[in-house]
Amino acid sequence: MVDKNHSDKQWGLCKDCKWWQIEPDGSRANTTMGLCIDEDLQPFQLRVSGNSGCNHFMPGEPAKARGSSEAPPVAAPTR
Ligand code: SF4
């Protein structure tokens, strides 16, 4: 059975999410790597591709900061 709290949220792709933070010269592509800066997920330093996704998705433009794509990411969240 699906958890109601989760099913109420909208699932979407990182490349279309405002919580995705990529390199300053990065593009919104499936293979671009970036840091997820969703407040709840920040403790995990989640490094995700444009083609990744989750149900904390919020439509918007990605944030940009140098070091967002490194493993582990070294950029601080900008939002
Ligand atoms: S992991 Fe979820 S919240 Fe984070 S950037 Fe991707 S879709 Fe957005």
Explain what you see.
The protein is mostly beta strands and 79 residues long. The chain has one domain (1-79). 5% of the residues lie in helices and 20% in strands. The strands form 2 sheets. The protein has a 4-stranded mixed beta sheet with strand order 4-3-2-6, with no helix packed on it. The protein has a two-stranded antiparallel ribbon with strand order 1-5. The model has no long low-confidence stretch (mean pLDDT 93). Iron/sulfur cluster (SF4) is lined by residues 12, 14, 17, 19-20, 36, 38, 41, 46, 48, 52-54, 56-57.
Total number of domains: 1
| Integer average pLDDT | 93
Which term fits the overall shape? Answer: globular
- Class per helix and strand makeup: mainly beta
SSE sequence, one letter per element: HEEEEEE
Record field, number of beta strands: 6
Q: Main beta sheet: strand number and arrangement?
A: 4 strands, mixed
Report the C-alpha radius of gyration, rounded: 12 Å
For the biggest β-sheet, the strand order reads 4-3-2-6
Distance between the termini: 34 Å
Q: Low-confidence stretches at least 5 residues in length (pLDDT < 50)?
A: none
Number of continuous helical runs: 1
Please give the share of residues in helix: under 10%
Molecules bound to protein: iron/sulfur cluster
